[in-house]
User: Which sequence fits this backbone?
């Protein structure tokens, strides 16, 4: 595969993983969003107003976990204390942490750990074909894809159409992940999240060989 194809495959796997994580936490872990913190904050505010403190905590912890994941990811990025590229380290950490989730009996802590992983992923992988994008949520991709589509309609420049296609493609992959999660949930139960571990490990392999094949410096991998 060429570099662009590898980047697209990596984005595909991560977006499917993002959709699967959200489906898992919502369907099997008390209707909490692992990724969509806007939804969690909305419910947090609703229950805060009605004084339902147990529900407030139920939605507050995933938000805190997501924030912590962003914090740790950026801290690892800036520390530069890694034998391999920091993104590979993040992928390994994500895969390992998600293996622990099925064994956590309390939804509160399971969701917090899943959201922590999502926070790490959204901060670490932010570009596809050179365009900013997210693998764990859709609102930014939907906005950017629609803006690119409007620009193509107005200017007829092919790069705008390609950008729009990339954004909508990532959204489709996210939906596919959610569909997979919904289909597996009745069969594999709490271990459905293990599918994300598989996707993340395949992503790690792609990123590893991507670097070895091209012999780029570690910094240049930041474009993916």
Assistant:
């Amino acid at each position: 595969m060429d570099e662009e194809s590898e980047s697209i495959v990596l984005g595909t796997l991560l977006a499917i993983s993002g959709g699967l994580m959200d489906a898992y936490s919502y369907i099997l872990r008390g209707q909490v969003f692992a990724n969509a913190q806007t939804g969690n904050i909305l419910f947090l505010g609703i229950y805060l107003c009605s004084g339902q403190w147990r529900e407030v905590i139920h939605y507050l912890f995933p938000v805190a976990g997501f924030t912590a994941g962003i914090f740790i990811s950026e801290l690892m990025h800036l520390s530069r204390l890694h034998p391999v590229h920091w993104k590979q380290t993040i992928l390994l950490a994500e895969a390992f942490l998600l293996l622990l989730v099925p064994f956590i009996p309390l939804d509160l802590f399971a969701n917090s750990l899943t959201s922590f992983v999502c926070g790490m992923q959204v901060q670490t992988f932010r570009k596809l074909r050179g365009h900013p994008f997210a693998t764990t949520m859709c609102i930014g991709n939907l906005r950017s894809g629609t803006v690119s589509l409007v620009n193509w309609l107005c200017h007829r420049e092919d790069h705008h159409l390609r950008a729009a296609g990339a954004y909508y493609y990532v959204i489709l992959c996210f939906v596919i992940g959610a569909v997979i999660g919904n289909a597996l949930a009745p069969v594999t139960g709490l271990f459905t999240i293990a599918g994300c571990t598989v996707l993340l490990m395949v992503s790690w392999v792609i990123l590893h060989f991507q670097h070895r094949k091209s012999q780029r410096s570690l910094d240049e991998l930041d474009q993916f």
User: Anything to note?
Assistant: The two ends are 15 Å apart (CA to CA). Strands lie at 127-128, 131-132. Confidence is low (pLDDT under 50) at residues 217-221. The longest strand covers residues 127-128.
